[in-house]
Design brief:
The protein has 575 residues and is an alpha/beta fold. Helix content is 35%, strand content 17%.
């Protein structure tokens, strides 16, 4: 039997665009892995640039520096084999004056770009392996930037400074590791497709498969990923080393959970979820962390990591939010405390004459329980000043939607004042059910730099809150908040369900329409009232203009509002 090397799975949290910082981290982790006796050291997909780099890839200076950094990494760790996710590129000739998205060129006219794995050895870039299958669905947009290798010529390698000669062979994805071991290298989507590169690698001499990945989290994806990897291992009859990214990047959260799956589909080693880890594997010994089986718990961890990285990677250290005594703001406050620490979270209570005494009491009790700073600022005088200013123009004596939204926008302005004066990042507190149906106020409760629970349906909001209290073994989120009927409290005796159907019904319809793309007829066939279904769908479609102006929403379901669901604002289709 071939000698199986000690392999380091470097599950690192890279930052998009931080080429120097990412390169330093790669060198540091490589040396740590060497100290543990690793012979093959593997980093995630596009680890050097961060994932996804988006239109940074159109900047020639970015590409040039990235390649220079890659050379520096190779020179710093010459005595070991390192696989690093990066961008390979070939400058095109005669592009002066061309449209940057020339139709004939398909992508950037200045360079041919490849999502690549660089093999570093002997102090140099030995070769590049190119990603064959480019995802172009949901949040993925790789065909905008990258090219696939030529048909039947899966990979390129050689001197990165010289033009490629001739037709490359997929054989070049196989890396000799010594001791008779050969690793076949694949990149993310290459392992998700049937008959991809992995299927042919055993015949080409590979004794194990490596897959570097940047696979974003959503609820239920880990279980699907495990089954997929087990299937590929059984098909190829080769062990598979899967190295996934971890961390938050804008609206995406990467969950890590890198793993080694051996020949019979058994998970032989598993890294932690939602945190960095250096996992060293050999046939003799490996770490295997517990598989997180509780869906609510993994959503909690994803949201906490998403908040933490969004705040810190964008140069903030503290966050502020409005605390109303409602369930949504209570959940966001608890998540923020886990992500940033209680001393870095501010809760601003902004009661009006419609705010019940119990709501204000619960809002302040929540802040006390969580140990966060609280700032009560009544808004009635500000509301009255608006009414006085507008009295010649409009009648605001009745609490119609205009009067209600003035209250919400005053609160949004107060929060943004705290942001401007003290440097807080404002967290919007709206949930997916509200954003879907337009039950939210532009420039009011939608104000903020991040919407942590904008992809969390209302029913899941309650499940997360109850999970948190169970974890803390006390009612950190007061019972009154959990038991009181949801209300925006912008009018007398207002309740959400005066305007919306029960959330358990609404959320099921939302899931079918937004996440599964079912038509109204298909939803009705599943037993829902036709008039209700058509009403909800109309509301979802009409609220697109609001969502287009929303803060970035952390993705935790298969189909979140935002980059992964690009619906037109002007839209007459009723389906």
């Amino acid at each position: 039997m071939n000698k199986f090397p000690r392999i380091a799975l470097c599950q690192v949290n890279a930052t998009v665009g931080d080429l120097g910082g990412n390169a330093s981290k790669i060198v540091d982790w490589t040396r740590r892995a060497q100290d543990k006796g690793a012979e093959l050291i593997i980093f995630p997909e596009l680890c050097l640039t961060g994932y996804p780099p988006k239109d940074l890839l159109l900047k020639p200076s970015f590409l040039k520096e990235q390649r220079e950094r890659l050379g520096e990494i190779a020179g710093a760790v010459p005595d070991v084999t390192v696989i690093v996710g990066c961008v390979d590129f070939e400058p095109r000739e005669n592009t002066k004056g061309q449209n940057i998205f020339d139709v004939s060129a398909k992508v950037s006219a200045r360079s041919r770009l490849y999502n690549a794995a660089a093999v570093l050895r002997g102090g140099r870039i030995e070769r590049y392996v190119h990603k064959t299958h480019l995802p172009n669905y949901d949040v993925f947009d790789e065909e905008r930037y990258f090219e696939s290798p030529q048909k039947n010529a899966t990979h390129f390698f050689g001197d990165p400074e010289k033009p490629r000669q001739g037709t490359p062979s997929s054989q070049e994805a196989i890396v000799e590791l010594g001791g008779g071991t050969k690793a076949g290298i694949t990149i993310c989507e290459d392992i998700w497709v049937q008959d991809g590169p992995a299927a042919r690698m055993k015949a080409q001499g590979a004794s194990l498969i490596v897959n570097i990945s940047a696979s974003p989290f959503y609820k239920g994806k880990f279980r699907a990923r495990v089954e997929l990897l087990k299937t590929r291992v059984k098909e190829a009859e080769l062990p598979l080393i899967y190295v996934n990214a971890v961390g938050g990047q804008d609206d995406l959260v990467f969950d890590g959970r890198s793993m080694v799956v051996v020949e019979k589909g058994e998970i032989a080693a598993l890294a932690k979820g939602f945190e960095e880890e250096l996992l060293v594997y050999s046939r003799e010994t490996a770490d295997k962390h517990k598989v997180e089986s509780e869906e609510v718990a993994e959503v909690w961890k994803a949201l906490v990591l998403g908040i933490k990285d969004y705040v810190h990677k964008n140069g903030f250290s503290q966050a502020a939010l409005g605390v109303s005594g409602g369930i949504d703001s209570a959940l966001v406050a608890a998540l923020a405390v886990d992500a940033l620490g209680a001393k870095n979270v501010l809760g601003v209570a902004m009661p009006s004459k419609y705010t019940s005494r119990q709501s204000l009491k619960d809002a302040l009790l929540l802040c006390n329980n969580l140990g966060i700073k609280s700032e009560p600022i009544p808004i009635d005088e500000l509301v009255a000043s608006y009414h006085k200013t507008l009295v010649e123009t409009m009648d605001l004596s009745k609490p119609d939607v205009t009067a209600q939204n003035i209250q919400a926008r005053i609160r949004g302005n107060i929060l943004m004042a705290f942001s401007n004066k003290f440097g807080y990042l404002v967290l919007a507190t709206g949930n997916k059910s509200e954003l879907a149906t337009g039950y939210a106020t532009l420039y009011g409760d939608m104000s903020g730099g991040l919407a942590p629970i904008g992809d969390v349906p209302k029913t899941l909001v309650y499940a997360l809150a109850r999970w948190f209290n169970a974890r803390e073994k006390t009612d950190m989120i007061p019972v009154g908040i959990l038991e009181r009927a949801p209300s925006a409290e912008l009018a007398p005796n207002q309740r959400d369900q005066d305007d919306l159907p029960p959330y358990d019904v609404l959320d099921k319809i939302l899931e079918m329409y937004v996440e599964e793309d079912l038509s109204s007829e298909e939803i009705v066939e599943r037993g829902f009232d036709p008039a209700l279904v058509h009403s909800i769908i109309r509301r979802i479609d009409r609220a697109e203009y609001k969502r287009r102006q929303a803060a970035p929403i952390l993705k935790i379901t298969p189909r979140a509002f935002g980059f992964g669901r690009r619906m037109p604002i002007t839209n007459k289709y009723e389906g």
